Amino acid sequence: KGKRAFIAGVADDNGYGWAIAKSLAAAGAEILVGTWVPALNIFETSLRRGKFDKSRVLPDGSLMEITKVYPLDAVFDNPDDVPEDIKTNKRYAGSANWTVKEVAESVKQDFGSIDILVHSLANGPEVSKPLLETSRNGYLAALSASSYSYVSLLKHFIPLMNPGGSSISLTYIASERVIPGYGGGMSSAKAALESDTRVLAFEAGRKHKIRVNTISAGPLRSRAAKAIGFIDTMIEYSIANAPLQKELSADEVGNAAAFLASPLASAITGAVIYVDNGLNAMGVGV
Ligand code: NAI
């Protein structure tokens, strides 16, 4: 029987979330996505107008279908958490039920259960500031959007995940090695995400037989990465120095995610899996 996946963090066809959706769709999964509320309108319009049709093509020639797009803001767990200025913001007021708890409830109502949960989102308002210049608010915002958002998603979706299910997030090597430019507490947020992957794997494994892994991905020219500002340098650095001297494609990360979500990975949990052309293995650039 086909599996159902919910992928949080898809708002265009350039990021890892989109590529993961495609690989899962190619493997036969039904696709639901969660799209950041401020990006929802343009994403749905582009989808409807066929702007993504070229990148919806799957290996067998068919087009990926997204069964449903849910508005989501993963920094809010339930309506009580939403401050007045967001509630009345016109980009938010046009949508409803977009806190994590409400999205999980909507998915449960619409579909009953899911098998695969993907977290492909991050945000750090001060990412371009060095850690030494990062404010407390900026640091906590990075952790809230990029790390706790995953704890919250898993917590709220576990009750509707079938036993044997799989959950995946995306991380970056800046958690364990210094990557100047990845600031604002984003390196800290990824370190938290990786540590949480181990603890959540234990808790979700024991209680619900669900696997929890994270993919440490190499550099990709996504919307989020372009906003950080050093992505071209990172891609060039990787091509020059990684064991595999090629540009990483989002599909390679998508395929690794499809493997991790499948029964082929039934004994893999609590792991950080590198999909980065091997760059993590290098001690110096040559
Ligand atoms: P992306 O721009 O495609 O995805 C980030 C998504 O997060 C966007 O769709 C954005 O709308 C969404 N988002 C931001 N704040 C949100 C919130 N509060 N609630 C819900 N959604 C929110 O960019 P990318 O790069 O594909 O990012 C996906 C994941 O991959 C992130 O966790 C990122 O840190 C990770 N990653 C990216 C790398 C890269 O070079 N692009 C390298 C390693 C990891």
Notable traits:
286 residues; alpha/beta; 7-stranded parallel β-sheet; 16% strand; binds 1,4-dihydronicotinamide adenine dinucleotide
Characterize the structure shown.
Helices cover 41% and strands 16% of the residues. With 286 residues, it is of the alpha/beta class. Strands 3-2-1-4-5-6-7 form a seven-stranded parallel sheet, with helices on both faces. The termini are far apart. The model has no long low-confidence stretch (mean pLDDT 97). The structure holds 1,4-dihydronicotinamide adenine dinucleotide (NAI). 1,4-dihydronicotinamide adenine dinucleotide (NAI) binds next to helix 1, strand 5 and helix 8.
Global Rg: 18 Å
What series of H and E elements makes up the topology? EHEHEHHHEHEHEHHHE
Specify the overall morphology. Answer: globular
User: Main β-sheet, in a few words?
Assistant: 7 strands, parallel
Helix content: 40-55%
Query: Order of strands across the biggest sheet?
Result: 3-2-1-4-5-6-7
Which small-molecule ligands are present, each listed once?
1,4-dihydronicotinamide adenine dinucleotide
Mean pLDDT: 97
